Amino acid sequence: MRAVIQRVSRAQVSVDGEIVGEIGRGILVLLGVSVEDTKNEASYLLEKTLNLRIFEDAEGKMNLSLLDIKGELLVVSQFTLYGDARKGRRPSFIDAAAPEKANALYEFFVLEAGKQIEKVETGRFQAMMNVELAGDGPVTILLDSAKLF
Predict the structure, then answer these.
(1) What residues make up the domain containing 63?
(2) Which residues contact residue 120 at a Cβ distance below 8 angstroms, ignoring those fewer than 6 apart?
(3) What pLDDT, in 10s, does the model give residues 50-73?
(4) What is the CATH classification number for the domain harbouring 56?
(5) Could you give the number of structural domains in the chain?
(6) Position 149 in a domain
(7) Is 80 annotated as catalytic?
(8) Catalytic residue among 12, 49, 55, 79
């Protein structure tokens, strides 16, 4: 499972002009699921995301997590995180999970996040989405449950 973590002052996702998810200060997660992933990878990535110390403390150092600041979370499914463009010019998505599996693990991630975070918003799975954000920093972190980076 892969995630692009972006610290935001606000973010929203819309489908056909309708806002379907919107947060204030917190984290926007672009989440990709691979053919190999299970709930174990989803749990690992969620724990890492919620506890990642990327928010500034009183001294301006990144020492606080989303849990510490009681921030908000917007999770958007993005299968293209498993696009492999090493050969040719058209990415291969062979490592991305099939929609049924990807959606199940995406929903699991969101459900488990909601047990720890007061406000968790989402995009719409398999929809063409428009994501808008106000990056805070900017701070962008890449996470991979296989620890490839």
Answers:
(1) 2-144
(2) 72, 73, 74, 75, 110, 113, 114
(3) 999 999 999 999 999 999 999 999
(4) 3.50.80.10
(5) 1
(6) no
(7) yes
(8) 79
